[in-house]
Model the fold of this input.
Amino acid sequence: MNRANRGSLPALVFLFALLVLWQLGAMKVDAAYILPTPVQILGRLWELRGPLFTVHLPATMAVTGLGLAISLALGLGLAAAMDWSPLVRRCLYPVVVASQTIPTTAIAPLFVLWFGYGVWSKVLVSVLMTFFPITITVYDGLRSARTEMTELLETYGATKWEVFCKVKVPCALPSFFSAVKMAVPISIIGAAIGEWLGAQSGLGYFSRRMMTQLDGAGVFAPIVLLSAVAMAVTGLVGLAERRIVKWRGES
Done:
């Protein structure tokens, strides 16, 4: 067994134990509309695979992809601007933090009123939830560049842009990948919340529709699918990080 498999074994054992406890607890409750068993959820997921995989999952992934792309562009731009200029940092940092005090469930219906039931109302919810961790994590990564390295380059006549590209960007790469790994599940959650509050398709919308029918397994089925997609995408980001940030040892 290689090192990666040995590292994941405790997590798999713990997950299996949780699923067993869930199965036993749900069987004890014996009310599938309240707490379905994992077996019932997987069975329902298979029964609903047609609409889930061909209609609702693509709709949620479209919202997630757009929201994540906009959040990355916005977050990286804000982080670079705050690192570049202390004045910009003093102006933007409080606003960035204040944006996270807005209750998502309160603002999302307004987005629906402003932009309708189309994709952009859900994209804005995803962006509102996602850009903050990207901004703050990348900004901290840029600020973590060693002062003596920047001073050495400046002594040799390097411009501020050259110092940024040659020192700060490489130092911020691990923080960037950490930010993306945080942003992926958050963006999916944001898309699902937007769909739950107002949409005509998507996994969040489908889960809400199943709730109105008291279909407990149907409510959990799209949630399980969302979790699986989030873990898969996060794993791909981690793989890209290991290939690009080669100097960072595995934990």
